[in-house]
Every structure is written in C-alpha cells, then in structure tokens.
Amino acid sequence: MNTLAIAQVNLVRLLRDRTGLFFIFLLPIVLIVVLGTIYGGRVAPRLGIVSVDSGALGAQLVDAIATGKMKLEIRSFATRAELLDAVEAGTVELGLVIPAGYDTTLRSGGTAKIAIMSQPARQMALEQGVAAAVGAQSARVRAAQLTASATGAGFDEALATAERVAPALPGVDVTAEDVGKRLFPAGIGMFSLGAQSQLVLFMFLTSMTAATQLILTRQLGVSTRMLASPTSVSTILAGEALGRFGVAMVQGVFIVLLSALVFGVDWGDPLAAGVLVVAFALVGTGAAMVVGAFSNNVDQAGTAGVFLGMLLGALGGEPRLERVGPDVHQLCQLPLVGDATTA
Fold first, then answer.
1. Which residues contact 48 (CB under 8 A, 6 or more apart)?
2. I need a labelling partner for 276 at 20 to 30 A (CA). Which of 3, 51, 106, 327 fits?
3. Based on the structure, what is the number of domains in the chain?
4. In this structure, are 154 and 203 located in the same domain?
5. Is the pTM of this model over 0.70?
6. Are residues 195 and 307 in the same domain?
7. In a domain, 23, yes or no
8. Could you tell me if residue 127 is inside a domain?
9. What is the mean pLDDT of each run of 10 residues along the chain (343 residues)?
C-alpha cells in the first residue's frame, strides 16, 4: 500500500502541473496532426494541367489521364507561367501543358508538342504514366490519320474507328510483384508514422523530464520524512519507480488510444502493442530513475532528460520523408507525333 501511495502522489503531481499537461497531452497530438497532414495527407500525387483552347482531343487527353489507372489529384491552371510557379513551389509534383490549337494541329496532320515540367528530383513514375496516356492517344491519332489517308474517310470517323478497335488489339500484360518484406505495411494510414514516432519520442521524453519529481521529493523534504517513517528504503524506491512507470504509461496509453479512436491509426495486435508500450515504459522508468538519482537540482534533471531524449532519438533515427526544394525546375517536351525530343 505504501508503494501505491507513493506512486499516486507522483501521478497527482503530474496532473496538477499545467505546463506539463500541455507537453504530455496536447503537443504530441499537434505533432501527429502536423506530420500526418504534411507527409501522409496526400493520398495521390498532384498533377497540374494547362489546357486552354486545346479542343476536343485536348479534353480527351485530360480525361484519359484523370480516369486512368494512376491515382492523381488534377489541378487546372490558366497559364503556363502559373503552372511553372506551382511546380517550383512544390504545390504540384508535375506540370503538363497542352498547347492551344492542339486539336486543330492533330486533325491537320501536324505535330503537337506537350510540355512536362518537373523539379530536379523528377517524378519518374508520374512522368511515365502521363507519357503512357499521351502515347495511347498518339497511337490512335496516327491510326486515324493513316485510315483517313488510305480510305478517304473523315478524320473524326477514322478516329472513332481506331478508338473502337484499339481495346481489341493484342497488348503486353505487366504484372508487378513485391519481392522481400515491405518496410511499411501496404495499407498504412496517413497518421500512422507520426503516431508511432511520437509515441516513442514522448514516452521517453516524459519519463526523462519526470525525473524532476525525484529532485522535488528531496528538496521538499518528502524523502526525509518517508525515511523517518516505518517505511523501508526498498518500498520507497519501488514507489518512486512505480510513479515514473505510471507517468510513462499515462503518456503511452493516451497517444495509442487517442490516435486509434480519432485518427484511425492501426496499432496491430492489441496484446503485442501493449507489451511493447509496457516494455518501453520500463526503459523510460529506468532512465528517469538514473537521471533523478544523479542530478542535483530540477533544472539539471530537466535539461539532462530532454538532451538525452533528443540525443537517443537522433541516434535511433526514424523514417524520413524528404521534399525537393523549389529553387530549380526542369522542362522537357514530348511531341505527340514524331520522335521524342528533350529540351
């Protein structure tokens, strides 16, 4: 009972510290939301398109890209300059410019050039998907031009025939297969990485900063009064350790439950997740007891706790997602008809 009473005192101190409550309950959630919004919120890459006065074939190309197998977020821009600024700023990953008179040029047998804009760290998969849609339309336009030239039929009639026949033509099937183990599960949510990383970080930081309570216990004379009572040293140590463990568990359980209920984070098997949280709470408890025992004052314990927590977090590392800077852009041109050129 004495052990539980000592642990209860530590938890009551935790709940009465308004500044501590901010760092324990509010800050982790804020960081989870921020990280999830910035790095996990975009389910699909963003493609900016300029298609002004491009005609029916231009609209058909945009529709083919939007409804294709690629999951894209399409954003329309009025001018090439606006699209270029968006690519440079990282607002869109890729830019596509369909020139004015696109439809007229193709119907007359001319060559229409489509510009694709990207940053230096190029979105190769996205570019290839867009190029595939351009290539599919290019093949049908060429077939319509040849048919119209050979039979004397109108271009629209020949194009309709090409579009009707194209699905029945033999093609190449490509099957993608994952080899080895995935670094992250396929269905991972937008807030999952942020919740998992903040769980580990804040459980450890909260445990380390909670070491200041050991210093306060000594400074307020509580430890002296406990030693003067018929309470054994082992009971006092067990109570203080249980208090540190309780603080760490409050932090861990709060993040797990709130992220699961509010943000839909899947923590996997509940028993396995619970065991890991308990194990890490024990790690934090041991580190907090060591820092509290060797620190001389509250400031020293708090500084040492935060410093060691950040240092160990940096050494341990976590998955990092990088964004390309907006200072440089690259422009390439793909002709719809004829050989590909790059400028």
1. 75, 76, 77, 83, 86, 87, 91, 92, 94, 95, 96
2. 3
3. 2
4. no
5. no
6. yes
7. yes
8. yes
9. 83 79 86 77 76 90 85 89 89 90 88 84 72 85 85 85 80 68 62 83 82 80 82 87 89 92 88 93 88 77 69 58 34 36 30
